[in-house]
Amino acid sequence: MDIKAFDKMNYGLYIVSTKSGDQTAGCVVNTLTQATVQPARLLVTIHKDNQTERLIEESGVFAAVALAQSAQMELIGDFGFRCSRDLDKFANWAHTEDENAVPYLTEQTVARYSCRVVGKLDAGTHMVFLGEVQEAQVLEEEDAMTYAYYHLVKKGLTPPKASSYRPEPAVKGYRCKICGYVLESDTLPEDFICPICKRGSEAFEPVSAE
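Below the sequence we write its predicted structure tokens.
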């Protein structure tokens, strides 16, 4: 099987969020897609180890926003490479709540959707949720970011829990704990800034090629 054939499939880049009780969670996905028009329904696939997946299971609702092409890598770093169990991901970004009290971003996004789960499919490592759209709104007229644009222009990486993740060859150097960027070097300058998520050298850890 030529795994590169999947690179020819195009996707958008979204942040899916949910809330259960007083817990909120959100993550970056490239797996949100429209299933039907009437009724309006969306499909989304999320890793079972992800806090967002667990809270969607509990609440039965989720929101999603389409990221703008100009969205900052720091935002993608927070929502794509950090865990909602350890971080209030919405704390540093403009947001509001939908009719289900689910938070969603109001900056660096071009459209938003609010859904009620009406079906799900166990896909092994991931869960596929079918959501009936209760609210939908265009937020900005800017182009939405595609997964291809994220990789080719933004030089973004794929989180390990993403359904499209493929392990990279092992290298020796320093890895950013936020976004996964690897600096192939024997030393890490104190003033080094990650070119992907813009975090400092304190976010890096040594890695070995062994």
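The helical segments are 51-59, 73-81, 147-152.
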